[in-house]
Write the structure tokens for this entry.
Amino acid sequence: MSFKNKILRALIATVAFATAAATHAAGPELRLDKAPLQFDNASLQHGAKLFINYCLNCHSASYLRYNRLQEIGLSDQQIKDNLLFTADKVGDLMTIGMRPAEAKQWFGAAPPDLTVIARSRASHYGSGADWLYTYLRQFYRDTNRPTGWNNVVFESVGMPHAMWDLQGEQVAHFVEREDGHGGKAKHLERLEIVKAGKMPKEEYDEAVADLVSFITWMGEPSQHNRKQIGGWVLAVLAVLGVLTYLLKRSIWKDLH
Amino acid sequence: MQKQAQQLLDWVDARFPLTFLWESQWGKYVAPKNFNFWYIFGSLAMLVLVIQIVTGIFLVMHYKPDASLNAAGVPVAFASVEYIMRDVPGGWIIRYLHSTGASAFFVVVYLHMFRGLMYGSYRKPRELVWLFGVAIFLCLMAEAFFGYLLPWGQMSFWGAQVIVNLFGAIPLIGEPLSIMIRGDYVVSDATLNRFFSFHVIAIPLVLIGLVAAHLTALHEVGSNNPDGVEIKKQPKDANGIPLDGIYSHPYYTIKDIFGAVVFLFVFAAVVFFMPEGGGYFLEFNNFIPADPLKTPPHIAPVWYFTPYYSILRATTSDFMLWLGIFVLVVGGLSVFSLRHQLAKLAAAGVTAVLLVAFYFLDAKFWGVVLMGVSVLLFALLPWLDRSPVKSIRYKGGLYKGILAVFVVCFVVLGYLGILPPTPVGTIVSQICSILYLGFFAFMPWYTAMDKTQPEPERVTWQ
Ligand code: HEM
């Protein structure tokens, strides 16, 4: 084996070792369901409606203006007639009347602003949308909590299940398993609906998917635009790249 | 028309050395003709500097360095960044260019420095070019650190908190020093305001001055090249151009423009298609507004700081023994190899003082020292390298192997610095830290031992 090969092997071994050390570091398992996002106007409008009806009373979306909803196909008149409950003007930000300090007294934790929640909740377990999609479907009844609700991916959450009338009431069945480090960890076995809501499971999942799609859109309303412009920018740069390369070759030709 | 232009130029030249500056700094600057891929990163660093300054100017028009809460209960600074992202026309492009630019700057500068390591660009007569470079690197780190507080997210806040607290580990002056940096007992509005001031004017001013000095020094001594051949020593043609030299203009003008376009392609791909850079360029947690009452479970600095952060974390009290042995070995070797009696004595003295200080002062303090030292060690390279040749092309297997180990250690340290600490991770980072330091500390010996090949007379040119 040549010297170079030896070095290469040693390097690969080191990197593999460090990687192994790293995977070991992963904390408790967080299992997320992949969110089936859809960014067509109908889904986003449905999501917006759910968001404004079910969430915007506790949570604000204070970086977003109502009239931005034009971008998902709503006219100012539609926004004014159907969605504007707490604000006066379509140019207003989506703020709420509840004060954070009061909310904190009621729930033990202030409901955070949700405008960029989809971006902040991303992790190596999945995207922020995956987390939200899982979170909003895994509330369960827990009599030990002051609100009567708990959540599988957010232990001891201060938020009650906002859409329980749609989903119904669930109970969670947990099993204890070895966690591989000598301790025991709680694992979700299954969630069981004990009291039906207005929507059957599939319909509720679809509603949550629409809601999460809207929350994802709201996290960065320019994201669609960004990718479109990006495509053009890359195309122009690619052409420029070829041209400047040819120019470089012709200028350098006379060098020996 | 052309005549009038010439007249105008003459008019200016009689009053300001415009033509002279252009010709000495670029137009008639003679560079070796064999620059390769690695020589693009200097120009790219300048390009990124311009991007950062221009986008920065527009960001400052809308950003508000204010930690107080607005009516919705969100810090004004955080909300102003989202305002830029949403309500300012083109604001999101400006912001992503700037945030991606910060990471791009470090990618480009790390590669630029690595080129220096490979081709011995720091060696005589380019010591000052290199030293200005190291000063630029320090400024860049300060600039990034101050800038990262501005969006006032959770990582901004707690990252700054952790780093400023480090200064508290310095004996006696530590506590007052960290209060002076923050302007408060905790990171607060006062901190945000002063960091803003540093980020938008103080550091950029120094940075631009240093870049000017860096380039003036370079154009005075001339560029190195992948063969390490000094073209200034070659025979010259009728125009006074060395055999392997060419004018920068038009040759490197067009080559650098082509390189810039390729770079911009990659850069734009990130800006437009993955501006968060997978959570490394914009950390996910930083989309949560700063909350002084809620410490995040895991605080990781941005990727470009993590190699040094790892070295800091590696310095535990167990590690001090190994560090002591390391210093003893380097000190012993120095005493043994130095020629002057006085130098021997000085080396022995420094070693002894260090060992005693290791024993009495907290490991936390040494972590901070080691982190600083590992950045500053680059400044010593011109005097540590004893190899008869500059370029890695003519160096022996020993140097090549050691440089490869150094690079791997740097990457592993960077990787581990992102993760929460684990027992295995700490041991790996301790080994890597020692190897990192060893790269510098043992350089005078291994570069002298290395079996090199003679440098050619002419550069390699197909
Ligand atoms: C804002 C950051 C920087 C800018 C704009 C910059 C710019 C440049 C430019 C335009 C060149 C000539 C082109 C080239 O050789 O690539 C150069 C050369 C050089 N730079 Fe930098 N630089 C920066 C940072 C640094 C740093 C951090 C170091 C080292 C610690 C460094 C060390 C050098 C050296 C040694 C050379 C001469 C290379 C040779 O001739 O082989 N520079 N720099």
Notes: The radius of gyration of chain B is 25 Å. Chain B is about 65% helix and 0% strand. Residues B 39, 41-43, 45-46, 49, 109, 112-113, 116, 119, 121-122, 126, 129-130, 133-134, 136-137, 211, 214-215, 218, 223-224, 378 surround protoporphyrin IX containing FE (CB under 6 Å). Chain B touches chain A through 57 residues (CB under 8 Å).
